[in-house]
Specification:
The protein is mainly α and 195 residues long. It has a domain of 52 residues. It is globular and about 50 Å long.
């Protein structure tokens, strides 16, 4: 991709997983519709994320504004916002500022990476393979407020691994992750409803 194409991809596709999928399918010579459908499947988790923000936003932010702000939800902005909402009221300006700075950082980092990436010949040598799992671990820790949260997280992780083990073909298209997330989120809602 050219620098302009890479930057435009980050302007239009505000999801790292979606970009990885798009690039993989493009390299394999896949169709644009395949990229779109794979992105929809992988990013269904944002439907769960935006739904779980409703109790915090419903009385404070107009539904149309909340719907527009849900475009900026990512794993990171969701975790930061939900952590913030534990001690502060939800406001449209907070979520808009969080989403905007995150998206601008995403686009700026893409530009910087596209310009300087050619100078790095071996990314494995830098040991960056830990960065993504470490980030998700940090986000999980931010979200844990009760002992039941830990059990739901462990249950969801085990469910994901069991599905991947029992149905290995599902590991390729991330269906096990989506199924485990839906099951784990449902369990979390049930447990939270009892408290």
């Amino acid at each position: 991709m050219s620098v302009a194409q890479a930057v435009m991809m980050s302007v239009l596709c505000f999801t790292g997983a979606g970009q990885y999928i798009a690039i993989g399918i493009m390299q394999a010579g896949g169709a644009v519709i395949t990229i779109i459908l794979a992105n929809i499947l992988v990013n269904l988790r944002y439907l769960l994320f935006s739904t779980s923000t409703v109790p915090y936003l419903k009385d404070r932010v107009q539904p149309l504004v909340a719907s527009l702000l849900s475009y900026g939800l990512t794993d990171e902005t969701y975790a930061v916002a939900m952590n913030h909402y534990q001690d502060h009221p939800a406001t449209a300006s907070y979520l808009a500022g969080l989403n905007l700075t995150s998206h601008l950082g995403w686009i700026g980092s893409t530009l910087l990476g596209a310009l300087l990436g050619s100078f790095i010949t071996n990314t494995d040598r830098l040991g960056l393979g830990f960065a993504l799992p470490a980030m998700y671990t940090c986000l999980l820790v931010l979200m844990i407020n009760r002992r039941t949260d830990i059990w739901v997280a462990v249950f969801t992780a085990v469910t994901c691994l069991v599905i991947g083990y029992l149905v290995p073909a599902m590991m390729d298209n991330l269906s096990n992750l989506i199924i485990a997330t839906v099951i784990g989120a449902t369990l979390g809602v049930i447990i939270n409803g009892q408290h």
